[in-house]
Amino acid sequence: MRTDMIHALTVDVEDAVNLAMRYFFARDMAPTYRVKENTLKLLDLFDFFHTKATFFILGEVAETYPELVREIANRGNELGIHGYSHTRYDKLNRKQVFSELKRAKQEVEDVSGQQVLGHRAPAFSINQENSWVLEVLVEAGLKYDSSIFPAGTGRYGWPGFQKDIRRISLRNGTEIIEAPMSTLSILNREFPVCGGGYLRIFPYGMNKFAMNKISGKRPVNMYMHPYEIDPPPFQDFYMDQVRKSSIKARLQLQAYWFNRKTVIPKLSKFLGAYEFDSLSKVIMSELNIRL
Question: How many Å apart are CA 107 and CA 97, to the nearest integer?
Answer without folding.
Answer: 15
